[in-house]
Design brief:
about 80 residues; mainly beta; Immunoglobulin-like; 5-stranded mixed β-sheet
């Protein structure tokens, strides 16, 4: 597991809580229910970093999304909801 979500419901920011040994690099893809890519986030991760904030998601429509986290061969999928 690469990370967990602080909450599976978001408005404009996703808060990712990294595992104890975070990868040095993380790519995140946010897809809507139909599988269309809505946003992509890539970042370097510092060794002691515990949280990643993905801001600027306020323009997305409300609904259900799938968050795909990737690092090399590791991949994780999380379901989340954007609400008011």
């Amino acid at each position: 597991m690469l990370a967990t979500l602080k909450s599976q419901v978001f408005i404009d920011t996703l808060i990712l809580e990294l595992n104890e040994q975070p990868p040095p690099y993380l790519k995140a893809v946010l897809r809507d229910e139909r599988g269309k890519v809505c946003s992509i986030f890539e970042t370097k991760v510092k060794p002691a970093q515990k949280i990643i904030l993905w801001e600027g998601l306020n323009d997305l429509p409300y609904g259900v999304y799938v968050l795909e986290l990737m690092y090399e061969d590791l991949q994780q999928r999380l379901r989340l909801v954007k609400r008011v």
